[in-house]
Amino acid sequence: MAEGLRERKKRQTRQYISDVATGLFLERGFEAVTVAEVADAANVSVNTVYNYFPAKEDLFLDRSKGVVDRLSRWVRGRRGGESAAGAVLRELREEVESVSPRIGLMDGYARFMGVIHSSPALRSRLWAIGQEVQDNLEHTLREETGAPDDDPVPSLMAGQISWLHGTVMATIGRRLMAGGKPAEVSRDILVLLDEMEDLLSDKVLNYAVRGPE
Amino acid sequence: MAEGLRERKKRQTRQYISDVATGLFLERGFEAVTVAEVADAANVSVNTVYNYFPAKEDLFLDRSKGVVDRLSRWVRGRRGGESAAGAVLRELREEVESVSPRIGLMDGYARFMGVIHSSPALRSRLWAIGQEVQDNLEHTLREETGAPDDDPVPSLMAGQISWLHGTVMATIGRRLMAGGKPAEVSRDILVLLDEMEDLLSDKVLNYAVRGPE
DNA sequence: CTGCAATTTTGCAATGTCCCCAAGTTTTCA
DNA sequence: TGAAAACTTGGGGACATTGCAAAATTGCAG
């Protein structure tokens, strides 16, 4: 067995604490719930909470872990003849068209974003995650293109592509908080994506094109 | 008299506290200095510090206040035949060419950025300021172009132009922290500006062009 | 100049996040 | 089954931030 009972129990405890905390935050807001309350509700000590989560914000934004390498993954998986930005645009369109909960297109995400929106600490954390996404992407672009460390272009490209992704995510959040239904927002975002693609220069749209397979 | 003695004294106290705090932070780092120490060094009580500054971070980033409407000012002051992005590019080039301390091109800015860099709290605040710059710009663009509130284009344009500004500021900080001299960094940034302008599409470069005077 | 009202400053107490350490407890594995 | 390793917990504490009411200052009218 690749995983002992101990590991399983740890994951379970961690997940339980995060779930309990998320429930409380969704119900009463981030600042209004103390870590002590979370610990109580999860039947563990405050120290145990901090044993699993470095900071209170991580109790709520734990699930965003799958996001940090999203752009890198998409770029690495780009098709033959497709550029980095092209792959991201395509993947985004696919997620949006399928009204995927992975990008927040689901009922309940509005309340989730609402909690983040009303807490400076959570907003910071979200920004930090976005930064991480961008840094990872820059690193991937350097690998994929073999650009030297002092070449600023991969950094600029990562900035543009992250802007694309970040703007889409932010807009989805805003529209849902304004009362839009996922299906409606999905349609709006597809239009937004066309507008954004229009705003990008050919330099960006043709960066890091993968040779035909 | 437009201003009483009381007002003057308040401004003076505020400035003094900020100066003392900045000195301590530059010397020992942001987290290593407590608010109590700042208060002591400034001969006031902790409550007085909080009377002037909403949070510890504001003690260090107080001077950045002149930045929040920078892009708006530049865009509003664009010349006849000049676009929003064009004006920002021109103003940036002027500041960079003149090695202006307003954009951090000065000895000592490296240490300043170093303090920010090593404190998550300060980095967040800096990001928040950048967000404010962008929001102001978006508002200005809507005013200048008369775009309706539901038109997403001004928001996208503000995003692109802020990206320009933010990337320049971040790069200046990075280069200076890496040991570059202001004059050298100035030259590098001019090259960077050319590269960035190259990356922007005509849609962006020709947005909100002011009619000939 | 003096005294009062407005404004500031300060002390004190409290809350909440987060860290550190030492003392249990539980799980793993020889 | 008996350590050794890994978790959990209680206690203590540093520090940012806030609320409140007393105390010190200041502006200004008389």
From TrEMBL, chains A, B:
InterPro entries: Homeodomain-like_sf, HTH-type_TetR-like_transc_reg, HTH_TetR. Keywords: DNA-binding, Transcription, Transcription regulation. Signal peptide: none annotated. SUPFAM superfamilies: Homeodomain-like. Residues 11-71 form the HTH tetR-type domain. It comes from the Bacteria. Residues 34-53 bind DNA. PROSITE patterns: HTH_TETR_2. GO terms for molecular function: DNA-binding transcription factor activity; transcription cis-regulatory region binding. Pfam families: TetR_N (PF00440). Transmembrane segments: none annotated. PANTHER family: HTH-TYPE TRANSCRIPTIONAL REGULATOR BETI, HTH-TYPE TRANSCRIPTIONAL REGULATOR RUTR. This is TetR/AcrR family transcriptional regulator. It comes from Streptomyces coelicoflavus.
